[in-house]
Design goal:
Length: 208
């Protein structure tokens, strides 16, 4: 019982310190370490609270990293993250501070939420999401960035005709996506990139 109490106090202390660290611009992403006790609904809600301000590219990267890790390989966590609060956190706040360092985490976070998750796909199938994702494509200037941004976009559109139409109708979305081909290097990136093209414009997706 005593050891159990100590462990509980340690876990609670770790959780209480973690979210302020996410929003502290002076703490680098590389300094963060994922712990299993971070898979906690209350922690997710705290991280997504509107009282928390994403005010730098460093904070945007760390917050998107957190959502990525939270939802990775967990159907329950993907369901927990399928909320308007998390949508707003990623699309309305993190995207506004996107950078070359954060764009892959934003894409990865969205991709992890929507994987095998119809509610998550519906959540991100909006004109606003389409416009924000189109805008941050300009920051995807590496193979990894393109792969994970496309992972998120492809995930939203997969088995989601409404999202395909919304993104296809988003001004310049297809044009900006086409520009990313320059940075495609690896087979995994090519798969995600061409998967996006196939869903966005199926009749024009074949590679040269």
């Amino acid at each position: 019982e005593y050891e159990g109490c100590l462990q509980l106090l340690k876990t609670q202390s770790s959780q209480q310190l973690f979210v302020p660290t996410l929003y502290d611009s002076s703490t680098a992403l590389a300094a963060l370490q994922w712990k299993k006790e971070y898979h906690d609904r209350k922690l997710l809600q705290d991280a997504a609270s509107s009282s928390r301000t994403v005010n730098s590219v460093a904070v945007a990267a760390k917050v998107a990293w957190f959502v990525t890790k939270f939802c990775q390989d967990s159907a329950d966590c993907r369901t927990m993250a399928s909320t308007k609060e998390i949508y707003d956190l990623l699309i309305k706040r993190c995207c506004n501070y996107a950078s070359a360092a954060s764009v892959q985490w934003i894409g990865n976070a969205i991709g992890n939420i929507v994987a095998f998750n119809a509610e998550g796909k519906k959540l991100f199938a909006t004109p606003e999401a389409g416009d924000q994702l189109r805008r941050i494509m300009s920051f995807a200037t590496s193979d990894d960035a393109v792969e994970f941004l496309c992972f998120g976009i492809r995930g939203i559109m997969t088995e989601n005709a409404a999202a395909c139409k919304i993104f296809a109708d988003t001004p310049s979305f297809a044009d900006e996506l086409a520009k990313l081909r320059t940075y495609v290097r690896t087979p995994s990136c090519k798969e995600e990139y061409e998967g996006c093209l196939q869903l966005l414009k199926p009749e024009k997706s074949s590679s040269p």
